[in-house]
Amino acid sequence: MDNLMSEGLSLMVFGMGFVFVFLTLLVFATGFMSKLVTKFAPEAKPQPAKPQPAVAAAASPGNDELVAVMTAAVHQFRKH
Fold first, then answer.
1. Where are the domains of the chain?
2. pTM for this one?
3. How far apart are CA 31 and CA 26, in angstroms?
4. Is residue 58 a contact partner of residue 70, using CB atoms and an 8 Å limit?
5. Spatial CA neighbour of 58 closest among 71, 67, 50
6. H helix runs in 41-61, sequence order
7. Which of 2, 16, 44, 66 is deepest in the core (most CB within 10 A)?
8. pLDDT given for residue 52 in this prediction
9. Cα separation, 59 vs 61, whole angstroms
10. pLDDT in tens, the chain (80 residues)
11. For residue 70, what are the contacts with CB-CB under 8 A and spacing of at least 6?
12. Where would one find the signal peptide in this protein (predicted)?
């Protein structure tokens, strides 16, 4: 029984050690790849904001029902 317990403990230590080494290597590899990407890839330029179609549609005359429905939906959402 003592031999079985020592085998189980050694297997547990070996398995946990393997997982620890693998995760440590994964952290270093991810950090290295992140540095490579930031060095070689250009940053994206921010695009100017465009008005949303729903806002433009709601602002046009004759859409009172649409504005009422949107207002009710916002009030219902904020209530919960």
1. 1-41, 51-80
2. 0.48
3. 9
4. yes
5. 67
6. 53-59
7. 66
8. 62
9. 7
10. 789 999 999 999 999 999 999 999 999 999 999 999 988 887 777 777 776 665 555 556 678 888 888 888 998 888 76
11. 54, 58
12. none
Q: Is 62 left (phi over 0), alpha (psi -120 to 50) or beta?
A: left
Question: CA-to-CA distance for 51 and 49, rounded, in angstroms?
Answer: 7
In the chain, the amino acid numbered 52 is Q
- Token readout for 1 is 């029984």
Q: What percent helix, strand, coil does the chain show, rounded to 5?
A: 80, 0, 20
Of 43, 73, 47, 69, the residue nearest 58 (C-alpha): 69
Give the Cα separation of 32 and 25 in Å (integer). 10
Q: Which two tokens stand for residue 17?
A: 């050690």
Token code pair at residue 55:
């806002």
Say how far apart CA 39 and CA 56 lie, in whole Å: 41
